[in-house]
Amino acid sequence: MKKIAVIGSGLMGRGIALVGLLNGFDVRLHDIKETALKQAQDYIASEMKKAVEKGIYQVDVDTCLEHLSCFTDLEDAAKETDLVIEAVLEKIELKIEIFKQLDAICPAHTILATNTSTMSPTEIAAQTSRPEKCIAMHFFNPPHKMKLVEVVKGLDTNNETVQFVKEIVAEMKKEMIEVNEFPGFVASRMNCLIGNEAMNMMMEGVASAEDIDKAMKLGLNHPMGPLELADLVGLDTRLRNMEYLHETLGEKYRPCPLLSKYVKAGRFGKKSGKGFYNYN
User: Fold this and answer.
1) CA–CA dist 25, 27 (Å, integer)
2) What is the DSSP letter of 278?
3) First and final CA of the chain: distance in angstroms?
4) 223: cis peptide before it, omega within 30°?
5) Quick one: how far is CA 46 from the chain centroid?
6) For residues 258 and 197, what is the distance between their CA atoms, to the nearest angstrom?
7) Among the four residues 7, 25, 166, 169, which has the most C-beta atoms within 10 Å?
8) DSSP annotation of 82
9) 221-260: per-residue pLDDT in tens?
10) Where in this chain does the record put each 3-hydroxyacyl-CoA dehydrogenase C-terminal domain (predicted)?
C-alpha cells in the first residue's frame, strides 16, 4: 500500500485525503491546528458515507478510515511516505518553506508535489536538493467529485517522477493532462479570466450575479457560473491567484476592483457566509 502525506487539511487537503482513502491509499494528514484536523476528519467520514450510500464507491467506510492518520508534527506526518502533496494557501513563500522542510524530512525516494493552481513548481523545487522529484498535481474542487488532475512538470522534473504521478492519478481513478509549466497552467489561466470578466460586468452593472451565472450555465453549458465558482473556491484565494497571474502574465489579469473590495470587507465566499451570494 502506497503511503501519502497531505500537508494542509483545508478544503483541498481534506478532499485529496478523501480521494486517497477511497482508492486504497494509506493517508497521513497534517495541519498545524488540532481543530482543523478534527473538522477534516468529520468531513472525510461524512463525505465517504455519502459516496458509499450513493453507490459511487463500494468500500467499507470503517476500514478506509483506519488508514487515515492525523498529525500536527510535520516530521511525523511525512517521514515514511512515497508521495507528499502540499495543499496549503496559495503563497509562494509558504510553499517554499514547507518544501525545504519536507526535503530534509522525507526519504530519498519520496516525490514532493504541490497542489498549486497557478504557481511555479520550478521555483518551489529549486529550494530543495531533489528538484527532479518535484512536480505539481493540481486537483480541482471538490477533489472527490471532479475528474481532472493537471500534472505540471517543473524545469528539472524527470520522466520517472512524471510516470509515478501518472500511476497515482490512475489509481485514484482520475483523468489527467500533462502540462509544461507556465503561469496559470491550463484550467486556472482560462478560468481566472472568465471569472474576472464576470466580476467586471457585475461591477459595471451589466447584469446581476444570478443572471451572469445563468448566462454561462444555460448559454454556454457551464455546470456552474463563474461567480458561484469563485465563491466556492474562496474570494481570498481567487484574489491571490489573480495577483500572481497579473504579476507574471501582465495587465489582462489585473484583479477586478470589486474582488479586492469584497476581500477587504471579509467577504470570502461560501466559507465566510457571504461573497457574490449570501449563504447565511
Assistant:
1) 6
2) B
3) 43
4) no
5) 20
6) 11
7) 7
8) S
9) 999 999 999 999 899 999 999 999 999 999 999 999 999 9
10) 184-279
